[in-house]
């Protein structure tokens, strides 16, 4: 198994890509911390993992709250004694055009998608530096690379995550810590399912592979980057788009 006895924290693991990643890591031998804002989502993913016969610990956490994040790290150390992998997957959208976007819409997305990644990355890195090893994986997006109509706030956060990823890779590499980012395209998740069907069909038609992505596609990318197979990979942004942009 590719993650045997590794301890992995996955934020935003209550549904979608995060939940699928938690299950995939469990299948590969990791002890998974299922972290999400909502208790019922945490419980659902934990129960699914345990039904598969694997170990999981659920923690409700607000990634925008540094004390909450420190508590998550402390509970992980108490339960398993280390933190091998952090997947910074938690994220939200609040779309609007530039001239219509409210301050609240801008601030909420910045707080979760950028500050939340910073909070979790900093807290995990402190533990990993002491250990002398670790992997941090950040969720960015092709929107962060190429922009998207109505997503000033979201694009700004995802571009910022790329900057943090490359900065952390430079700072932490000598400490035995690898840092990479995954940039999904259009993936069928509860977030994208809110979009009009005609938009989803248009994206499917534009992709050379003629389908939209599935959460499993992203989970497999995270698995590769978390494993020893990617031991020489750091500071990278892996685009998973089905060729939608290239």
From TrEMBL:
The keyword NADP applies. Residues 6-185 form the Ketoreductase domain. It catalyses: a (3R)-hydroxyacyl-[ACP] + NADP(+) = a 3-oxoacyl-[ACP] + NADPH + H(+). This is 3-oxoacyl-[acyl-carrier-protein] reductase. Pathway: Lipid metabolism; fatty acid biosynthesis. CDD domains: BKR_SDR_c. It is an enzyme of class 1 (oxidoreductase). The active site is at residue 154. Belongs to the short-chain dehydrogenases/reductases (SDR) family. Signal peptide: none annotated. GO terms for biological process: fatty acid biosynthetic process. The keyword Flavoprotein does not apply. GO terms for molecular function: 3-oxoacyl-[acyl-carrier-protein] reductase (NADPH) activity; NAD binding; quinone binding. Homotetramer. Keywords: Fatty acid biosynthesis, Fatty acid metabolism, Lipid biosynthesis, Lipid metabolism, NADP, Oxidoreductase. The lineage of its organism: Bacteria, Bacillati, Bacillota, Clostridia, Lachnospirales. InterPro entries: 3oxo_ACP_reduc, KR_dom, NAD(P)-bd_dom_sf, Sc_DH/Rdtase_CS, SDR_fam. Gene3D superfamilies: NAD(P)-binding Rossmann-like Domain. NADP(+) binds at residues 12-15, 89, 154-158, 187. SUPFAM superfamilies: NAD(P)-binding Rossmann-fold domains. Catalyzes the NADPH-dependent reduction of beta-ketoacyl-ACP substrates to beta-hydroxyacyl-ACP products, the first reductive step in the elongation cycle of fatty acid biosynthesis. Its EC number is 1.1.1.100.
